[in-house]
Amino acid sequence: MSVYTQVDHERLTDLLQHYGFTLEHAEAAPLGIENSTFLLQAHDDHGGKKQLVLTIFEQFDEQALLPYLGLLNELASAGLPVPAALTDRQGQRLQQIQGKPTVLVPRLPGRHCFSPDVNHCRQIGALLARLHHQPPELADDLISERERLDDFAAHLGRLTGDDYHHANQVLDEWNEVPSGDTLIHGDLFRDNALFDDHGRLTGVLDFYNACLDCPEYDLAVALNDWTVAADGRPVPKREASLLAGYRDAGGQWDETLLPLALAVAALRFWLSRLAGPVGEHAAGLGSKDPTEFARIFGYRHSALGGKH
User: Fold this and answer.
1) 3 close to 284: Cβ distance less than 8 angstroms
2) Domains recognised in the chain with CATH numbers
């Protein structure tokens, strides 16, 4: 888990009362990197049970967060399995805890799948196709992934030898690719999806990297997590299944661009992990191992061949 902002039971009880809920139990979420997240059990005024998730945002201010909340509301209205923010009795989506923006959402059913099979991968591909068909204007006010990549590139100096040379080559080539106008998730890892006991996709979480970019990049982010083995090697059957799910749900991609996008996406998350945890006093996970994506980048870069 990652908890940067500690919240006592009394404060949580007070906050839930603004929504008409009574707190029964609270615990820190077992996963998470950037924000403080709590899993809550509560009941409403009629005694109905409520499973909720409270997120305290450690990096966003309120103005930066509002466009993402609007996006989630629109996606939920379109039938995508995403957690739209709940509104309190005054119709407000945002609260504050210790001066930080705070959001309450329903806890979607299901659990994370960390050993995906071809069925899981196919559903992830289909979900991405549905997302990519949503109106691009939903992301007009969101920070671009290219801006984030530029920020993470400040850590290129921590790479050495061939890694440094290859990374710069890949970034130079990617910067020549137009960013595109497709609404992407940008972070669809295994810990951002939920499945029920029958293996059906029930939820997609964490849209705070969403923006407009190439569909190939979003596919690459997912492929680099859902369809690789523990040593970073691509698993062809899972790759084929994710892409088939995407295609069968109406998605299209440029076969010539995807290999470069795979290398860029691997490099992006290698660099972001090198950036380290977002706080020095986190209770729990805080960050992930950068060497995982160093290995994936190695395989994806080798697959480019040619001038690389």
Assistant:
1) yes
2) 2-106 (3.30.200.20), 118-304 (3.90.1200.10)
